From TrEMBL:
The keyword Signal appears for this protein: yes
Leader sequence segment: 1-21
InterPro entries, per database record: TPR-like_helical_dom_sf (IPR011990), TPR_rpt (IPR019734)
Official protein name in the record: Outer membrane lipoprotein BamD-like domain-containing protein
SUPFAM superfamilies on file: TPR-like
Length: 206
């Protein structure tokens, strides 16, 4: 885990041109993160943010480390704040969408409105990221997965959840997104498998 974390830290600082001196908590957080101790890192970055609520780099690192620590609520909250300050940060939408997807998968109640809210939020985040970087095909892949999960949710024949039209539309949207990935990257077994899964779901719904 060390190399990706280091690349992310350096990349974000370079892209955003942050020249401010790092606080002790930031340095401790980065040390913990590069060692794979993401929960500890998130705690340090949270303390750094408490002392400077304009520090976008700290918000980014808090969101990223919380995501990898599987604290999706804290990750979403950090990226909420970052996006409010820097609404054109594509990667923040991407990771917030991923965090919402994983948070949704942890909701066990079949008819939970929280699951629906998180899935719709993930779809919106990936769409916002695509508006900013329309050639990033991992965004299509992840939005396709979010649409697929939403189709599964809305296809449940449970009162206040089931909606055949919405489920069909979500299935078709997932297939369209996966096909865009194939058009760009050529044959990929994992994507082809997801297309077949969505098509089978579509058949079952109809």
């Amino acid at each position: 885990m060390r190399a990706p974390a280091l690349l992310l830290v350096v990349g974000f600082i370079f892209i955003n041109g942050i020249a401010q001196a790092q606080t002790p908590y930031e340095r401790l957080g980065q040390k913990a993160m590069t060692g794979g101790q993401f929960s500890t890192a998130a705690d340090y970055f949270e303390k750094a943010y408490a002392s400077d609520r304009t520090n976008m780099n700290v918000l980014w690192l808090m969101g990223y480390s919380s995501y990898h620590a599987a604290d999706y609520k804290k990750s979403i909250e950090a990226f909420d704040k970052l996006i409010a300050m820097k609404p054109a940060e594509t990667a923040a939408y991407y990771y917030r969408g991923k965090a919402k997807m994983l948070a949704a998968s942890a909701v066990k109640e079949a008819k939970s409105p929280e699951r629906e809210r998180l899935l719709l939020g993930a779809i919106k985040d990936f769409s916002s990221a695509l508006d900013l970087t329309p050639t990033d095909y991992k965004l299509y892949q992840n939005r396709g997965l979010a649409y697929q999960e939403y189709a599964i949710y809305k296809s449940q024949k449970i009162a206040d959840v089931y909606n055949k039209t919405v489920a069909i539309n979500a299935c078709n949207a997932s297939i369209n997104d996966f096909e865009k990935v194939l058009e760009e990257s050529g044959f990929r077994r994992d994507i082809a498998s997801q297309i077949e899964k969505s098509k089978q779901l579509l058949t079952n719904i109809r």
